[in-house]
Design brief:
Length: about 210
């Protein structure tokens, strides 16, 4: 209790510590290192998390990023920003996963280990066209996050965590008005789509 409350961290991070400790205690119970009813976290309150609005890159910011991006980074940038893939999914994608107008996210690279087919929108198809290969990794970097941070500096934009994917969700929902479709394309629940992306941008911005 004292350890968690003394952490000078955001509420969500404190809760992550609490969850890690809970997992450790659960493991100890499973191995019978402690009694089955042992639960020292029972009286440790969960920190109240203040919901912050998701951050996105605007159309103008996305334009600047694309103008400054290395050719080797452009496909990754577009797959996340115009396809809604998670960073980890796009980083492990192979060009052979792109066929018949769809991106196939294989179960082994999907966050929830559930495969899905993402329809390639016209803007994504146009951007990927010059770089497309029959097979091979889509991005060659050992640490693509470092490349993205450097790109944002070159473009004069503050890098925002997950803003590429959040931009896709926001603009796509504004255009389709179909949370179920967007949730499938992004591999999220419908509730998550409503929570994060509803009413963030207008339809005309989504089309732009």
């Amino acid at each position: 209790h004292d350890f968690i409350l003394a952490l000078d961290l955001e509420p969500r991070t404190r809760n992550n510590f609490r969850t890690a400790i809970s997992n450790l205690i659960g493991f100890a119970r499973q191995r019978r290192y402690v009694p089955r009813q042992y639960n020292p976290l029972a009286d440790v309150p969960v920190a109240k998390e203040i919901r912050k609005p998701v951050e996105i890159f605007t159309v103008d910011e996305m334009t600047k990023l694309l103008q400054c991006a290395k050719p080797t980074l452009t496909p990754f940038l577009c797959l996340v920003g115009f396809g809604g893939l998670r960073h980890e999914e796009a980083a492990r994608l192979d060009w052979s996963d792109y066929s018949n107008g769809h991106i196939r996210v294989r179960a082994e690279i999907a966050k929830c280990r559930e495969p899905r087919l993402i329809p390639v929108q016209p803007n994504l198809a146009a951007w990927l066209g010059p770089f497309r290969k029959a097979s091979g990794p889509v991005q060659p970097f050992a640490n693509v996050t470092n490349e993205l941070v450097d790109l944002a500096k070159a473009a004069g934009i503050a890098w925002r965590h997950n803003a590429l994917r959040h931009a896709y969700g926001s603009f796509r929902l504004a255009v389709t008005q179909d949370p179920q479709r967007v949730s499938y394309e992004m591999g999220n629940s419908i509730a998550m789509v409503f929570k994060h992306y509803r009413a963030l941008v207008m339809e005309d911005e989504g089309k732009r």
